[in-house]
Design brief:
mainly alpha, elongated, single chain
């Protein structure tokens, strides 16, 4: 199971990295051309907006699969044995929140499609933005669900009774 999670996590991370690199290169090219030749690249704002959405939402499942969400270790010292259970509960809450986000995103995507909503400069269909959101949020919900159901692999690697990341 871990190998499958590592593979999917790596693929999602690589896709997000490609969009991030494209966004970076496009911005640098636009700024350079604008400053040197006074020739901006048409539609940069539209493309950067789409690439930013793709970067974030394709990276989201990766974060869940790698168990790298930002956490505050406020309970670890008081009740270290509760930490795995609390993490599972948090992952299940995340599944619920992500499912609601996917449902609302689907409704917005449907409206965007029906009204033929497009970006201001290039006229790109806004549906592309919503599709990246839906792919990422649904992928993150599945990843959070998988992580909530997994066995506690981390407890095998750390001494008994010690929270994760503590000596």
């Amino acid at each position: 199971m871990k190998r499958w999670r590592d593979l999917v996590s790596t693929v999602c991370g690589l896709i997000a990295a490609v969009f991030l690199a494209a966004m970076l290169l496009l911005t640098v090219a636009d700024v350079t051309l604008r400053a040197t030749l006074n020739v901006p690249i048409r539609g940069v704002y539209d493309l950067v907006e789409l690439f930013l959405a793709a970067t974030f939402f394709f990276a989201l499942p990766c974060v869940f699969l790698r168990d790298e969400n930002i956490v505050v270790n406020s309970i670890d010292d008081m009740a270290p044995r509760w930490v795995p259970t609390l993490k599972r509960m948090a992952e299940l809450v995340a599944v619920g929140v992500l499912v609601v986000m996917a449902w609302q995103g689907f409704l917005a995507a449907r409206d965007s499609y029906e009204f033929n909503d497009v970006t201001a400069d290039l006229g790109l269909p806004r549906l592309w933005h919503w599709l990246t959101l839906l792919i990422g949020v649904i992928g993150a919900a599945i990843a959070a669900f998988v992580m909530a159901l997994r066995g506690d692999e981390r407890s095998k690697d750390r001494p008994e009774g010690r929270p994760e990341g503590r000596p």
